Amino acid sequence: MTGEENRGSRREFMAKAGRLASAVSLTTFLTPGAAYATPAALSPVSGSPGQWDLSWLSRLATATDRAVFDWPSLGDPAEPLVLEIAARYLDNCETAYAPQKYEARVVLNIRTQAVSAALDDATWDRHALGVEYNVNDPVTHKAAVRNPFWHRVPDPLPGVALPTLPDLLGRGAIVLVCDFALGHLAKRLADKTGRQSVEVHQELRNGFVSGAFAVPSGIFGLAKAQNAGCAFVRM
Question: How many domains does the chain fold into?
Fold first, then answer.
């Protein structure tokens, strides 16, 4: 997807969001499915109030240092900027404090054009997301058929290893996924294949990487993380 197409898609997205906001509540618009999904387990949700899994907030409550990193566009997987900056923040906390004297936590707020970063390899392959987003795998240099943010990319310099999404999860990161944007992606994919968008939306939810939480929207996730004390890092 070119820069101009990205801007056009975003304008279309925001226009639809505005029309929907004036007609119905976000929870009414949401299709049935899982609010928080991992490849191994799904929790059905009706889209009714109170059905979203907000248990991630308890992991922020005990942190002495916390920050939310906004991730609105995929970017270049060969230079995963959001992951790099989030990892640097954790490194800085490790340098600044004595061991066992702090608990640092990062939140990755994945929304808009970046939601595929939270989907597993099988979902990338099944829905040809590398083609959809014009993203090449840094290893094969071909359209990605697996999540390129989940796998180690070639070292940019000798001895320099760029972080992966599992690296951040291993350090306690919380991954939030905008379900509204996920529905927008599902509609595009469904239109291309003649399927029902509700069905595709559920498939995408089922394809979350382990440890990802769906939130009604990226705006909700960002605000909720800030309400829980996270500093906002704009990317």
Answer: 1
Residues 6+ positions from 201 with CB-CB distance below 8 Å? 31, 33, 182, 183, 186
At 207 the three-state DSSP class reads: coil
DSSP label at residue 210: T
| The pLDDT of residue 12 | 52
Question: What CATH number should be reported for the domain holding residue 197?
Answer: 3.40.1260.10
Q: What are phi and psi of 228, to 5 degrees?
A: -85, 5
The C-alpha atoms of residue 213 and residue 57 are separated, in whole angstroms, by 11
Measured in degrees and rounded to the nearest 5, phi and psi for residue 5 equal -65, -40
pLDDT on residue 53: 96
3-state secondary structure of 31: coil
Could you list the mean pLDDT of each consecutive 10-residue stretch along the chain, which spans 235 residues? 47 43 28 30 44 95 97 95 98 95 97 98 98 96 97 84 96 98 98 96 97 97 98 93
136/112 Cα distance (integer angstroms)? 19
Domain of residue 99: give its range: 3-233
